[in-house]
Design goal:
- It is a single chain.
- The chain is mainly beta and about 90 residues long.
- About 10% of the residues lie in helices and about 40% in strands.
- A four-stranded antiparallel β-sheet has the order 3-4-5-6, with no helix packed on it.
- A hairpin with a 7-residue loop joins strand 4 and strand 5.
- The radius of gyration is 15 Å and the shape is elongated.
């Protein structure tokens, strides 16, 4: 079983966590000024790289907090987890 290192609780089994999408997506400053296509791109288009990828996760069956992680999409291994707001 894969263990994920929650930055708040420590290492826990992967079954306690839920994937929350790509990390570090910045909301547009003036969303009302975006075209329909730009808004759709912001909402739905995400990167899907091969290799290290910054993701958001939630410790659902633990502290309930969101955090970010760097996960290699080819090996499914986490190289780092960190709190929201940290670099």
């Amino acid at each position: 079983m894969l263990l994920i290192d929650c930055p708040y609780c420590g290492k826990r089994p992967e079954l306690e966590f839920a994937y929350g999408g790509q990390a570090h997506i910045v909301r547009p400053a003036r969303p009302a000024e975006l075209s329909d296509q730009q808004w759709a791109d912001y909402l739905y288009l995400r990167k899907n790289p091969r290799g290290p990828h910054a993701e958001r996760w939630r410790h659902v069956h633990g502290c309930g907090r969101f955090f970010n992680a760097i996960r290699d999409t080819t090996t499914d291994q986490f190289s780092r987890t960190y709190r929201i707001g940290e670099q």
